[in-house]
Write a structure and sequence with these properties.
The protein is an alpha/beta fold. Helices cover 41% and strands 15% of the residues. Helix 7 links the parallel strand 8 and strand 9. The structure holds pyridoxal-5'-phosphate (PLP).
């Protein structure tokens, strides 16, 4: 039995109301009741995704759609922008899908420099760019608007933007910035359990997909579009999560999208203040620090694993002890989803209680 609260950067804490919504009885996924649920979600999703294009629901984790995008959209060469664990993996995934792929790689915590991207794309070798907007492993948010204005110079190069941990935290105007595929998952800032990926595809990406062989079936964008027109998904979806999604969307619009973003910003600032007040630093460059989580550089050389364990066991709060090769050298605190001034104050004061034991005296 889980007796602690999640403050890791996904999955995040799920509200009682959202859990309650998951218990709504299931219906047939070809029934009018399902079509009704799907069509109720759609306009809210389009508003949140800032798009006129359909928003699709995939019963998979985000990686399903990330892999699907590569399969649907490239027959020349993929350029994978790499700046952390999630973005790095996309190169390997592209190759495993049988695609030609190159890396544009920077150190973990550094941002993708739009000028470097421009230089790479000017070779004319590429037809697809993969980018993680908010690199959750490093707590770094890429300058997406600047990156999209570089991509605007290359109309034959499509973009896939992973906004898994930034969606609904900051505004990402898909249509205005001409993003071809934007994707996110249920278990990050939407604060639902894992299992549902959400994505939207531009018209020119559909046109590309139509000409690509080997799109497969489960993540075929054209299948999603055909079914969408009937208010359905290609195969049986995770219906409880879609009930949860409608509940969550209604809550988001009740709070107001910009209020929600402001709340995330304020809470993120509170965590940053804690970091600086204790003499720690951020892993990313400050200007590119994420608004949805904080990746703390362990400049005070504490035993991160011990600190995380003490917080979880004694204070019933779970933060993350660092991802992959920066485990122990960093720790991460999420402010995504339903957190409030009170909940973040509580977390930070409990961290204050535990920290002194792990500092050199
Ligand atoms: C969590 C996360 C993923 C992976 O999502 P899954 O749902 O586990 O597939 C991908 N990208 C980013 C930026 C993430 O934070």
């Amino acid at each position: 039995m889980i007796d602690y609260k999640l403050h890791i950067p996904g999955p995040v804490d799920v509200s009682k109301g959202a859990y309650q919504a998951l218990t709504t009885p299931v219906m047939g996924h070809r029934s009018p009741d399902f079509v009704d649920l799907y069509n109720q979600c759609q306009p809210l999703l389009q508003e949140l995704f800032m798009t006129k294009d359909p928003v699709f629901l995939s019963t998979s984790s985000a990686w399903g759609v990330m892999e699907g995008a590569v399969r649907n959209l490239s027959n020349k060469k993929v350029l994978c922008c790499m700046c952390g664990a999630f973005s790095d993996k996309w190169l390997d995934v592209s190759k495993r899908c049988g695609k030609n792929a190159d890396a544009l790689s920077v150190e973990w915590g550094q941002h993708i420099d739009p000028m470097l991207l421009d230089e790479k794309l000017s070779s004319g070798e590429y037809d697809l760019v993969t980018l993680v907007h908010n690199e959750t492993s490093c707590g770094m948010m890429n300058p997406l608007e600047e990156i999209m204005s570089v991509l605007a110079k290359y109309p034959d190069v499509l973009s896939v933007i992973d906004t898994v941990s930034s969606f609904s935290v900051v505004p990402i105007p898909k249509d205005q910035w001409a993003i071809d595929v934007i994707l996110t998952g249920s278990q990050k800032a939407l604060a639902l359990p894992p299992g549902l990926a959400l994505f939207s595809v531009s018209e020119r990406a559909f046109n590309r997909a139509k000409s690509i062989e080997g799109r497969g079936y489960y993540f075929d964008f054209i299948e999603f579009l055909k079914n969408h027109e009937k208010g359905m998904t290609p195969s049986t979806p995770v219906i409880p999560l879609i009930h949860g999604l409608l509940y969550t969307l209604e809550k988001i619009f009740e709070e107001g999208v910009t209020n929600r973003q402001q709340r995330h910003d304020n809470l993120n600032q509170m965590v940053h203040n804690w970091v600086f007040n204790h003499g720690f630093e951020l892993l990313p460059e400050k200007q590119f620090a994420s608004k949805s989580l904080t990746c703390v550089k362990n400049t005070l050389n504490i035993d991160v694993a011990g600190f995380v364990k003490a917080l979880r066991e004694e204070k019933k709060l779970s933060i993350d002890g660092g991802y992959g090769k920066i485990k122990g050298k960093t720790f991460r605190i999420s402010n995504m989803g339903n957190e409030s001034t009170e909940s973040i104050e509580h977390l930070l004061s409990e961290m204050d209680g535990v920290l002194p034991r792990f500092l050199d005296k």
